[in-house]
Amino acid sequence: MAMECFVIEGGQRLSGEVRIEGAKNAALPLLCCSLLTDDTVQLDNVSDHADIDNMLKLLGELGMGVERTPGRIRVTGTGNDTSEASYETVKKMRASISVLGPLVAKRGKAFVSLPGGCAFGDRPVDLHLRGLRALGAKIEMEGGYITVSADRLKGATIFLGGPNGSSVGATENVMCAATLAKGRTVIEGAACEPEVVDVARLLRSMGAKITGDGSPRIVIEGVDELSGASHSVMPDRIVAGTYAIAAAITNGQVVLHDFPYDSLLCALDRWNEIGVRIEKVNAADSDERCSVRVFSERFLRPTTITTQPHPGFPTDLQAQFMALLTQAQGNSIITEKIYTERFLHVAELARMGAQIQRNQNVCVITGRSPLSGAEVMASDLRASACLVLAGLAAEGETIVHRVYHLDRGYARMEQVLSRLGAKVQRVPAEHVREIAASRGPGHRLGLAASPFPQDEG
Ligand code: EPZ
Q1: Predicted confidence (pLDDT) at residue 312 exceeds the cutoff of 90
Q2: Do 88 and 63 form a contact (C-beta atoms < 8 A)?
Q3: 141: exposed, middle or buried (C-beta count within 10 Å: 0-12, 13-18, 19+)?
């Protein structure tokens, strides 16, 4: 892939309106549900994320017919039952593991590469396998591949909690598989994330019998087959939170449409404490998709954040909040309990003048620290978003390298931010030096060597 950068001129107060795109972390498992039926599954409000492209490629490899028009995807079984997800495809996106459950439930077999790790640590799949084994699947691992097989899955009562609490992916995988198992399945210790509820909604419209989704105990009565359905993907709560912080960190005022208020109550509680105001524009709007006005009080206050499974603070907003908290008057504490290594953005923020002390999975952020532009390196998807946010607030010019990480979960972020008044350009990496040269000798440009393997997360 061509290496591209964002070149950001900081200091612009954002203003204007943005509609929040469909959720990547809902669309990915929703697409996997299409494997459970020979009919057509249609998804609307699907956004242009690179991860979605990868998933469509994987479904094609698995013999599904895919039709894509702007915002809409239709997937139909073609009867060509290849059940192999290659390492080539899986290494780009660990969410590929989500095809395991549907494949073994519908076709009786699946052959998927182990996803490996990503930039912020290893990403185990033991809970996925525990759940499928409990449903009677036979699991073999050979040469980095998992083979899962079963004549007919049988319902079971499963505890799916892991060392860090519940697992979103494992819950979705097992819930999908259980829809076609014989008998009742109880998933205890299930993930409660809104994206799990969105997947359960589609499965119910396909004829599945599911109750308890959104709670730690999900009950599924198996059926013999599922039919096609249409479903609109829920708005992306992490993208929504990212753009809300873009408005706050630039002391701007932005209206966000399709804001998933009800999925962000913990983040809203923290924003309230910090002094970021997020007010519904129309009181009559539903809390699931509403319009909100975002602006911040003149001085931001520090806070403490601990990431936890939903309804706790979302780990996917941790890096973005850290950028914001560098501008608060006082010391904030962030504790990361889901991915204890998810601090690749800390060293990069420090290069921009942030004062952050890290001790294992705890960071103390000293504010207010004025940020100044620098060349920084994107790594995982949300660390990249954090660096863009810092660049918006920094004095001078920031260059964020390797923005392909950002494209995995944000559709054309530079266009969205530019429409809100930010000075952001997407530039091929080789042109960055020309920019530096055009600014003369005083301009600081020294490419930070990237210690990070390409993020596979
Ligand atoms: C989903 O990943 C999201 N990805 C992640 O978003 C998100 O950070 C994560 O949930 C937590 O909210 C998608 O939905 C595609 P987990 P997932 O299984 O399902 C441990 C982003 O930025 N665990 O809920 O892989 C795991 O190590 C991405 O959009 C096991 O121990 O996350 C972690 O500590 C990054 N064994 C915790 O559970 C397992 O078998 C939560 O992981 C699985 C997970």
Answers
A1: yes
A2: no
A3: exposed
Catalytic residues: 118
**Of the residues 51, 118, 168, which should be mutated to test ligand 1's pocket, given the most ligand atoms within 8 Å of the CB?**
168
Categorize the per-residue pLDDT at 456 as very low, low, confident or very high, splitting at 50, 70 and 90.
Answer: very low
The residue whose CB lies within 8 Å of the most ligand 1 atoms, and thus the one to mutate among 160, 167, 380, is 167
The Cα-based distances of 378 to 115, 236, 259, 347, 364 in angstroms read 21, 21, 26, 11, 21
Establish whether residue 5 lines the binding site of ligand 1, counting it when its CB lies within 6 angstroms of any ligand atom. Answer: no
pLDDT confidence of residue 436: 65
Residue 263 and residue 292: Cα distance in Å, rounded?
14
3-state class of 419 per DSSP?
helix
* Strand 4-9 relative to strand 397-401, pairing: antiparallel
Helix boundaries (H) for 219-326: 237-249, 265-274, 318-325
What pLDDT band is residue 434 in, cutting at 50, 70 and 90? confident
DSSP run (H or E) holding 292? strand 290-296
Which residue segments constitute the domains of the chain, with CATH numbers given? 4-21+235-439 (3.65.10.10), 26-229 (3.65.10.10)
pTM score over 0.85 = yes
Query: Can you give the pLDDT at residue 170?
Result: 98
pLDDT of residue 450: 39
Task: Output the CA 163–ligand 1 centroid distance in Å.
Answer: 12
Q: What is the pLDDT of residue 380?
A: 87
Q: What is the pLDDT of the chain when averaged over all its residues? A: 92
